[in-house]
Amino acid sequence: MNMTKTGARRFAISGRSLAVITGMSALAGCVQIDTPDKPIEINLNINIRQEVVYRLDGDAKKLIEQNSEIF
Amino acid sequence: MGKNEMRMMTWKPTGLALAAIAATAAVALGVPSAMAQRDPAYAAARAAGQIGEQPDGYLGFATTPTPAIRALVQDLNIKRKAAYTASAQSTGSTVEQFAFTSGCNLIAKTKPGEKYQTPGGAWKTRDASPPERDARCP
């Protein structure tokens, strides 16, 4: 009974020191990230395929012609 | 006779309403052609290369804008988005797809001296040569 208690404590101690070591190593391997100085670009490649662009081209031209004050 | 009169009576206002609608429609149709010219401030900022066309179908700032130019561009971009949204719905596409397709055309339509943004994000001044556009542009 007594043996198991000490065993448990030893476990707890080793667990704590392990956490300290992990923390230290994490600090040592810390990577510095700076905020980007360029504006974030939105990637348009996600869901625009060429065939869609070709299909919409005529309607886009019409829209631009009919609303020339905003284009 | 009385029946006809009644009909006339009932039809008259309808006819007037139709005429009013037709007149309104004519005015509404007439408005775009009358308004087809760009706001002089917008035309000036474009010509000066302060603002330009982006590949996504919206206007952007090639140089740091004045508050007036910023407000002007924001207003135009809101109107463009509304127009793209309506067209996207009628063509069964997304707003981004329709806006992008329009961007292809708007960059192609830039005049020498005006600014446009390349697919890489750099601002270029349009010259006599074809503009640098996305590979998916028709």
In total, how many beta strands of chain B?
A: 4
Measured by DSSP, the beta-strand proportion of chain B falls in 5-15%
Number of domains of chain B: 2
Low-confidence stretches of chain A: none
Percent of residues in helices of chain A comes to: 55-70%
Biggest β-sheet description of chain A: none
Query: In percent terms, what proportion of residues of chain A is strand?
Result: under 5%
Number of helices of chain A: 2
Number of strands of chain A: 0
- Report the radius of gyration of chain B as a whole number of Å: 22 Å
What oligomeric assembly is this protein in? heterodimer
**Which sequence of SSEs, written as H and E, runs from N to C of chain A?**
HH
User: Based on CA inertia axes, which overall geometry of chain B fits?
Assistant: globular
Most residues in contact, chain pair and counts? A-B, 25 and 34 residues
What's the helix count of chain B? Answer: 4
Summarize the structure.
The complex is a heterodimer of chains A (71) and B (138). Chain A has 71 residues and is mainly α. Helices cover 62% and strands 0% of the residues of chain A.
3D structure, described in words:
The complex is a heterodimer of chains A (71) and B (138). By secondary structure, chain A is mainly alpha-helical. Chain A has helices spanning 2-28, 50-66. Chain A is built from two helices and no strands. Chain A has a domain at 1-30. Chain B has a four-stranded mixed beta sheet. Chain B has helices at 2-35, 40-47, 67-91, 95-108; strands spanning 51-53, 59-61, 115-117, 123-125. Chain B has four helices and four strands; from the N terminus they run H-H-E-E-H-H-E-E. Chain B has two domains: 1-36; 39-138, no CATH class. The interface between A and B is medium-sized, with 25 and 34 residues.
